[in-house]
Amino acid sequence: MSQHPPPGAPGHGATDQGEPGHAAVVPALPDLPEATIARLPEYLRALHHLAEAGHETASSEELAVAAGVNSAKLRKDLSHLGSYGTRGVGYDVTLLVDQIENVLGLTQRRSVVLVGLGNLGHALAGYAGFASRGFRIAALFDVDPELVGQRIHGLTVRHLDELPQVAAEDPIAIGVISTPAEGAQSVADRLVAAGVTGILNFAPRVLNVPVGVDVRKVDLAIELQILSFHQHRKSSAAGPAGLTALPGGLTGPGAHHSTDAAEAVGS
Asked: Three-state SS string across 99-161, please?
């Protein structure tokens, strides 16, 4: 983790529009658009790769290519942080890492619990990316008697009934749900009751949570369906020969009820 002072500290203001020493004034925690928040981790990962490759500075074009976005969008996102880089030089990689880590709350380690130790949960428990980005897996939970008591990646799987005790001993920042869909809401309720206000949900269902609890959903099937749409669209552009048969005999891009065909792909 970075040990530099957070943005806004004396001597750590980002230069404004390339004017050396001109600090941009931004709140410690600016109110960012959701789309910008979603891209900040991508920028951070790209910056870490650039730093590991020995880069001390990076232009907006270099950073945009590394993050997979266009440079205009990147500059606008970073301007929300008060970071404009230096004309002719670019962004200071170390300073920008500090700024993004501070905004994302990565300057402190956060405890994470994982509920559901099936195949996906087992893989998540061993994911090295958590620790490298400031997240500590504090406990593993399940309700299956065959799993409770097992050692998985250095931690003993505990019964979900022990969640309140664990939360009392070590406040939990985030709960990860990797249970089957039918058990996910009950797990979410128990996490909320234990004081957890951030949930990462891998179960394929929508969770109902109180105001003040943030939920991020990861559904691999939905991502595959979105990719399927793009594949279908490319096939449509190639003409009837490239199309897969659809319900109702719809084939060409100009066929009647083409909107219904698109809905069928995403259903």
From this structure: HHHHHCCCCCCEEEEEECCCHHHHHHHCCCHHHHCCEEEEEEEECCCCCCCCEECCEEEEEHH
Judge whether 120 is annotated as a binding position. yes
Structure tokens given for 70: 């266009």
149 and 210 belong to one structural domain:
yes
User: Annotated binding residue at 78?
Assistant: no
Whether 117 has a binding-site annotation, put simply, is: yes
Q: In this predicted model, what pLDDT tens digit does every residue of 8-42 receive, in sequence order? A: 443 343 333 333 333 444 455 668 889 999 999 99
Which residues constitute the domain of residue 182?
110-218
Let me know whether 127 and 185 are in one domain: yes
Q: 213-256 pLDDT, tens per residue?
A: 999 999 988 999 999 999 988 888 876 665 555 565 555 444 44
Q: Is residue 8 part of a domain?
A: no
